Amino acid sequence: MEWLLIFEKGIWFGLAAMGFAVLFNVPTRTLAPIFVMGAFGGLTKAVMLHYEINVIGASFAGATLIGFMSIFFAHEKHAPPPIFAIPAVIPMVPGIFAYRMMIGLISLAGKTDNTTYTRILSETTNNGLKVMFILMGLATGVGLPMLITRKDSAKDLRFKRNRKVTG
Fold first, then answer.
1. Terminal Cα distance for the chain, rounded
2. Of 52, 117, 141, 158, which is the most buried if we count CB atoms within 10 A?
3. Per-residue confidence band for 160, with pLDDT thresholds at 50, 70 and 90
């Protein structure tokens, strides 16, 4: 029963990814791969969280899988990898931690007594750091595979461009 709930989360991740893809007006031929990437990325995160792996590491692993899958689907569907990767990774953005951080900041700005101030400050800082590190993990996980699998270096690309202009 527990694995069925995790599988269901994967489907919801895929549907959310497809929703963001439609919102970003991606080509129709890319919707099915974006669903698959969102589902597998979300499943990776959910399974790792099930085995009590840190949320930051789980998000990074899911985003890295999405990054590599986006390169594969980019070649299959003849579209740039970010068209696949960005909508697929957005459902993994840590909304609950950002919400808790904002509520904590609002609480700190209001009247609080000295006994709860330290606890609220600690929780707000903890949530804010989680948000920051998860977002950094998502960006690195999506971007690193594209950098690793790039065939030409920046120097080679600049040399080819200058050669076309001059020659």
1. 66
2. 141
3. low
Backbone angles phi, psi at 87, to 5 degrees: -65, -30
Angle at 88 between CA 84 and CA 93, to 5 degrees: 140
CB 91 within 8 A of CB 16: yes
Which residues, at least 6 apart from 31, have a Cβ–Cβ distance to it below 8 Å? Answer: 18, 21, 22
- CA-CA distance, 153 to 52, in Å (whole number)? 39
* Burial degree of 85 (CB within 10 A; 0-12, 13-18, 19+): buried
Instruction: Read off the pLDDT of residues 79-129 as tens digits, 9 standing for 90 and up.
Output: 999 999 999 999 999 899 999 999 999 998 887 788 889 899 999 999 999
One-letter amino acid of 112:
T
| Spatial CA neighbour of 61 closest among 71, 48, 72 | 48
